[in-house]
């Protein structure tokens, strides 16, 4: 896979929007995720926003910061942000930082 990040939107379930991320969520790509969430929230007004991390190969501290920014945006819009399918390393990083207590996880 090339360096970078791609996002695929799935809004087929009423009230829920899923953004499937693939690639590296790091300093170079963090703003892409935040911009995607900023665009999705007013366009769809979901009750739940799911970030699917199954294909995220790198998650560094800047990427974690981007997830926190997305959580703040969703929370401010009255929306629940859920993380789905984090790989073992990403899960360990979220646990180490205490963010598993902040994010809903499926």
TrEMBL record:
A Pfam family reported for this protein in Swiss-Prot or TrEMBL: STAS_2
Superkingdom assignment: Bacteria
InterPro entries, alphabetized: MlaB-like_STAS, STAS_dom, STAS_dom_sf
Positions of the STAS domain: 14-106
Identification of the protein by name: STAS domain-containing protein
